[in-house]
Amino acid sequence: MEFTASSAKLLNIKADSLILTTGPQLQNSAAELDQSLDGAISSLIKAGDFNGKTGETLVIHIPGAAGKRIILLGTQGASTPQKQINAITAGAKALLKTASKKAVWIGEGLADDNEWQASMVARSIQTASYQYICQPSGGKKPKRQKLNTLIYWTATKAGAMAAKKGLSYGHAVGNGMNTARQLGNLPANICTPSYLASQAKALAKGQAKVTTTVLTEADMKKLKMGSLLSVSAGSDQPAKLITIKYQGAKIGVKPIVLVGKAVTFDTGGISLKPGGGMDEMKYDMCGGASVFGVINALIESQLP
Fold first, then answer.
1. Residue 169 pLDDT more than 80?
2. Helix residue ranges per DSSP H, 40-80
3. 20 to 30 Å CA-CA from 29: which of 100, 190, 233, 266?
4. pLDDT value for 167
5. pTM value?
6. Would the CA dihedral through 224, 228, 230, 232 be positive or negative?
7. What is the CA radius of gyration of the chain?
């Protein structure tokens, strides 16, 4: 997926879809776009087909429009960052349901901070396009995502520069979130401690800022880590203790430490638990998965 920012004349940008964030009152670029379409958008609003409430979406096809389709995204009532994120997520999902390969997200009518809004747009599109993939024996291949280019549009060059920075960061965070989701969704017979260790080493490969250390059970016995080893004593899968370091800041700066539980299947008290939902015990490692996601996001964004 390619994310770019632009401040070129909106009506000159060719795309399959335009995402227009607006309330019931059309303003700025929304009003200009409506005027170029002989009031087609305002007519829909007057007819009650679109009320502009937060997260409401309406896909319309208008001959002669800059895009093959216009996706109206409601923003009325999006008074907090979380409500704005919810609206952006709804817009991302609506976009991905179309056959669009190239889309323009009009960065008006929601948040004033283009860097923040663009980062949320990129993040939401990345997470909304996530597909669970597990093909140990040649299962179904994931559907190929049709959308390959997203242009975040803003009226000024300064806004586009800020948006470009936000898109890069949001793309990295979205990929990090998907990394955590993928690890959490894998079945426990695949996502074993050894598998997690191999993934941790893969994260560090070719990355000057990242180092991975994996302690084996023999290493942990020498360190008298009996409490941890007792957890894996009932499994034929050997325990691993994984440490991933991302050295972005200068040496000597106090580190931020994330500790994530990564027990790949929680069998504690298994005889006392009902059978229903037992498979969800694989999610006991999602604390560790979130750490993997953070490291992945750090690597992609190259934060100092």
1. yes
2. 40-46
3. 100
4. 98
5. 0.91
6. negative
7. 23
